[in-house]
From TrEMBL:
This is TIRAP protein. GO terms for molecular function: Toll-like receptor 2 binding; Toll-like receptor 4 binding. Residues 70-201 form the TIR domain. Residues 1-13 have a biased composition (Basic residues). InterPro entries: TIR_dom, Tol-interleuk_rcpt_adapt_Tirap, Toll_tir_struct_dom_sf. Residues 25-42 have a biased composition (Low complexity). GO terms for biological process: positive regulation of canonical NF-kappaB signal transduction; positive regulation of chemokine (C-X-C motif) ligand 2 production; positive regulation of tumor necrosis factor production; toll-like receptor 4 signaling pathway. It comes from the Eukaryota. Residues 1-49 are annotated as: Disordered. PROSITE patterns: TIR. One of its GO terms (cellular component) is cytoplasm.
Length: 201
């Protein structure tokens, strides 16, 4: 009876918490996905721009925000041959009003530490992971290892893994990611904006 009484007298969440819960439930519901129509399946590219996030920059940057529970906002998983493009993406994200904190392995890994340890720490301490899937990514065993580590970190995805396809046919999209919507990188500027909006959400 005591637990039932406590349940009935449970305090209502503050308005900011209820707003955050509403945002989270809305972003995880199928109706808010970025697919253009009901006949779209996971693995189709985002045909339209992602709607701006209802979360403001002030909410994200607030000292009490969940953002500060992790060291990085984004961990970029990529092939070494795509480093130039990834550096452009990181520069774009870090120059946004939100000042995203990106983990770029060749830049941010601690010299002398074990590669596996650095990767696992970066994945655990990042809110989401951008997988830049290119022909180089598909041929690189290290990239596949990173992908599997990211999926192990968040098995149900929960919006944390953001696949970005470039110069890869749909049939070559990794099987492990086929339950996730992806961003197809055609125009670089538009794709960077889509990635930024997805990270904010």
């Amino acid at each position: 009876a005591g637990w039932f009484r406590r349940l009935l007298h449970k305090p209502k969440p503050r308005s900011s918490e209820s707003t955050l819960n509403t945002i989270c439930s809305a972003s995880s519901s199928p109706s808010s996905s970025s697919a253009e129509s009901s006949d779209s399946s996971p693995g189709t590219s985002l045909a339209r721009s992602i709607r701006p996030s209802p979360v403001s920059v002030l909410d994200i940057n607030a000292s009490g925000s969940a953002r500060w529970a992790k060291s990085y906002d984004v961990c970029i998983c990529h092939s070494e041959v795509d480093l130039e493009l990834v550096e452009e993406l990181v520069s774009y994200l870090e120059s946004q009003p939100e000042s995203f904190r990106c983990f770029l392995q060749l830049r941010d890994a601690t010299p002398g530490s074990a590669v596996m340890t650095e990767l696992c720490d970066a994945l655990q301490n990042s809110h989401c992971w951008v997988m830049l899937i290119t022909p180089g990514f598909l041929q690189d065993p290290w990239c596949k290892y990173q992908m599997h580590q990211a999926l192990a970190e968040a098995p149900m995805a929960n919006g944390r893994t953001i696949p970005v396809l470039k110069d890869v046919d749909r049939k070559d999209y990794p099987r492990e990611l086929r339950n996730l919507y992806y961003i197809y990188m055609a125009l670089k500027e538009n794709s960077f904006r889509q990635i930024r909006d997805t990270v904010v959400r």
